[in-house]
Structures are given as structure tokens and as C-alpha cells.
Design a protein that fits this description.
Helix content: 10-25%
Shape: elongated
Number of strands: 6
Oligomer: single chain
Structural class: alpha+beta
Length: 110
Amino acid sequence: MPELYKFLAAFGLVNQAIINGYQLHVYDEKEITVSRYHEYHYSATLDLQPTSTANQDQLFSHFTDLINKSLVVYGTRDPYDCTMIITSIVIDPRDGNIQMTMKGRSVKTL
């Protein structure tokens, strides 16, 4: 099983990373075993705080590219096909913070 941090890192979602001018904070992470050694589900909340170079259009384009990808991530020794979706997006009009909820899936490749 790819651990959640490996899953997120494969998609470039590393805590404190700057993505199109937004600083990423990941929290409320969960891993769910659907079928041991075969299928796992993940969820996390992504908090994106704008910096002086923030570009919302580029950020959303970046995430559109991410959810259209299927990546291979290795667990302890086996490869897993990994995908993710964004299930909600909330934009705070006061400070421009963006909060996204994501869900992911990894299935052992044959």
C-alpha cells in the first residue's frame, strides 16, 4: 500500500509546497483499507493560502491536470495505480484562501 504521504507526494501535494502562488497545508488525512494488499482509499483537506504571486486560474488549471492523471506509486514493493478527485472547493472571499477536499484511490497493478 502506498502510504498517504507517498500518494500525495506523487501528485505534488507536499505540505508547505507553493503551487501557482498558493502555499499548501494538508490536514485531516485518512487512509481506508478496502481490500488489504489490493485497494486503498484516501481523503484529505487541502488548505491553500495565497502568496503575493497567487494566480487562481493557474491553480485551478493545475488541479484539473492532476485529476486527469493516473500515476503509478509503489507501496513497500508493489506498484499501485493511483487516481484522485477534488470533491469540494470553498473560496474565502475575505482573504482568498481556498479549501479543497480530495479523495484518492490506489489499486494494485497486475
